[in-house]
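Suppose a colleague, Dr. K., hands you the sequence of a protein chain of 143 amino acids and asks what its three-dimensional shape might be. Before reaching for any lab equipment, you can write down a predicted structure in token form. Begin with the sequence itself:
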Amino acid sequence: MKFKTVKESDNRLLNRREFMILVEDTDKTPKREDLVKQISAKMGFDDKKVVVDKIYTTYGIPEVRVYVKVYDNIKDLEEIESKKNNKVRAKLLGIEVKGDKKGAKGKAPAKAPAKEEPKVDAPKAPKEEKKVEAKVEPKAEKK
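The predicted structure, expressed as tokens, is then:
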């Protein structure tokens, strides 16, 4: 795979650098894990600070555009990126995300549904339907 940096911007507000990278000579869409490792190796970044945000493909063309974010430190990355993205990134890199319990499968324990008492409503009187009859006017005959 060949990498070309199409666009680079420095986002100081969020303490990160953003790249649009063109990856050429791909047979199929590369996995995020592979992209993180190869981009961090070629560009000299720590792979724990690199986030592959989006992968854009075009049918029939063996190239992929990748939107990558590189944070200055891990603390900013964990605060800014969504929890879902952090869990995906942690799974890819084999690291533990803060707040995860060991042995948890990512799902909260199911709570027993609270028993609800059946509501007893007073029987309602049936509503009377009003019939609206259309007024029919006699037609005048032509002579």
